[in-house]
């Protein structure tokens, strides 16, 4: 009886142990399943590889732009970008009727401006003055008129001048009476002071009288061309010049530009609005279409590849440190069907807008045309070697040069190997699109850097790989 009870107790105990063992494994499995699942990569000591690729174009060493006066209407375009042309070939036609209207309007503007005071440059001109305070009755010349020395320029109002002379004479007579009174009272100082005023007024009276006796006219002091008449009939003269006479007149800058524009329009009219290619070559740029108006920039650029070609591309400033004059690259064209080996960087210049740099490389090929698109692709290794980790393993904080990484640290547990996420702060010394070179943390090359996790990690957290 006792033996049976003992056997039954042992049986129940073994069942209990088995159940506990099963529950322990189940609990472990549940606990493990709740841990973040991570993937890892090892730290590598290597250089950082920088790859870059830029599109550019084949350009001729000799190119000639075709300019047309601004604001003319295009009614026909004979060529497109990439077309080959010969010298004197018709490439575009302008609206001749619109050109005529444009020229007529410009001619009218020039004629009106030539009569204005602003038409001619005043530099080197001889100013003509007259007495201030006199009313102008008539202006006898206009800007652009040729005059000789002694020619009448203005006629002053005789009645106004006569009244001015009479008023001035009365003032002088009154001052003389006052002066005599000072002498009678023996006030020598006051008498001398008013005598000075009388002398000044007498000189002014003499000048007015001279003008009146000359017919109230103002004459040119030199021969030449009237560069400007800043007064008009009805004005009252001031201390400023009433006319400017130039022996070698030059029109103002704005008027000169209009005259040059009119001359260009007349030449186009002689050609019936036709635009011809200035040389043999290929149309590498076209900046105007039918129905549009011409602008200040060239309507066409004709490139002649007979004197050689180059490859030009614009790069960003961040890639400038990877390219320098003298470097040699391989260029690809037409989806890799044409490869150009040994293309040397000849010059690097800043772009006009300052946003990047233009790189020019030598190019020799009898299969390529000006204007074709190609690609410059290069790979450069960093000068130093770093402890490299995948860029996506770094959690950036505050800036793009500082961050944190998690390393899976291995320990031995009851159920075997266990892993804990250990956080490290890192400083990035150099990086590309995939990897980052960090400062040495003293970790072994076999350290497992966590690159992805199913859950957010924190320092000291248990993980599973």
Would you kindly provide a written description of the structure presented here, covering whatever features stand out?
By secondary structure, this protein is of the alpha+beta class. Among the domains are: 34-50 and 384-463, conserved putative lor/sdh protein from methanococcus maripaludis s2 fold (Beta Barrel); 111-253, RNA polymerase II/Efflux pump adaptor protein, barrel-sandwich hybrid domain (OB fold (Dihydrolipoamide Acetyltransferase, E2P), Beta Barrel). Helices cover 26% and strands 38% of the residues. It contains 5 helices and 25 strands. It has a 6-stranded antiparallel beta barrel with strand order 2-15-18-17-16-19. It has a 4-stranded antiparallel sheet with strand order 6-12-11-8, with no helix packed on it. Helix 2 (96-114) packs antiparallel against helix 5 and helix 3 packs antiparallel against helix 4. The longest helix has 33 residues, at 2-34. The two termini are 55 Å apart. It comes from Ruminococcus flavefaciens. The chain crosses the membrane at residues 12-31. One of its GO terms (molecular function) is efflux transmembrane transporter activity. This is HlyD family secretion protein. Keywords: Membrane, Transmembrane, Transmembrane helix.
